[in-house]
Amino acid sequence: MKNIIYLVTGAAGFLGSHVCDELLARGERVRALVLPGDKSAKYIPKEVEIVEGNLCDVASLENFFSIPKGSSSVVIHCASMVTTNAEFNQKLVDVNVGGTVNMIDQCLKHPECRKMVYVSSTGAIPELPKGSPIRETDRFTPIDEERQVGCYSQTKAMATQAVLDACKEKGLKACVVHPSGILGPKDYAIGETTGTVIKIMNGEMPVGMGGSFNLCDVRDLAYGCVAAADKGRIGECYILGNKEVTLKEMCRMLHEASGCRTPHFYVPIGMAYKLAAQMEKKAKKTGEKPLMTNFAVYNLARNNEFDYSKAERELGYHTRPYEETLRDEANWLMAEGYIKNQKTA
């Protein structure tokens, strides 16, 4: 009926593997780009064809894009390098910006490529003051370091601008999705948010912080990425967000899902910044990783209110309740043995 091959980068990652699941559930043909020797490739569904390559190596992308005559391709570019360190990092620029430019060039070089979905980040969108919901924009550069904070967000902004410019100037058929934070089961790499959930459930966070997150179920984000491939308008951006949730609310829901302990008290943001400064100062002397960083506090203190009504309206994007996501994640973590001596509620 349709002879489309979906080309997914970052397929061994948390979101990319769920994008593969979403596509396979629809009966689609899926090909994944995986770094040579990447051990996390074992988490990619076995029905997915794996091609080794590197975003930064143009020659290696040729095999990924080469498909049988008479077929067409749709690219979902999930791969990126993520860091919780706000400092400049050249490798982030090379992978997130340079790698995306290479993907754009390959899409333009291969006329059988029908569309590309670039998975950006809400961090790429210039932040607005608290009380003003953050909506989609079409201008990400020049970088405003006060409103696009940290090297990761800045590289995602530059890459997003490159995609939009290629749509306007070179005829690239692409759209952009901006996921907020990612939550949910099957995070085999144990990212930052999953690591925090494990600490909470293991009683290793006696003190919490004020502030809020904006987190989405990875399965809902995967649906949104595939829906953007189906329905996203060329040259348009779509926020894939959720309602804000405080750390205190998240801990309460985790307790209800698993019976785990919750922090004894929650430090106000102002005090958290002071504690982070002390911990970072101490970490410089000892060489150990600080328990709390200024950037981590900023991510809780910042405006985390995103308007995702455009994605709901145009893509059919939807979010499930935090309670359901946290229950499923808690059950998965317990089943996988990440939680010590924990009884279910």
Automatic annotation (TrEMBL):
The highest taxon in the source lineage is Bacteria
Q: Pfam families this protein is in?
A: Epimerase
According to the UniProt entry, its GO molecular function terms are: aldehyde dehydrogenase (NAD+) activity
Cellular component terms per the entry's GO annotation = cytoplasm
The UniProt transmembrane annotation reads none
**Which InterPro entries does this UniProt record tie to the protein?**
Epimerase_deHydtase (IPR001509), NAD(P)-bd_dom_sf (IPR036291), NAD(P)-dependent_oxidoreduct (IPR051783)
The NAD-dependent epimerase/dehydratase domain covers: 7-241
PANTHER family tied to this protein: NAD(P)-BINDING DOMAIN-CONTAINING PROTEIN-RELATED, PROTEIN YEEZ
Name used for this protein in its record: NAD-dependent epimerase/dehydratase family protein
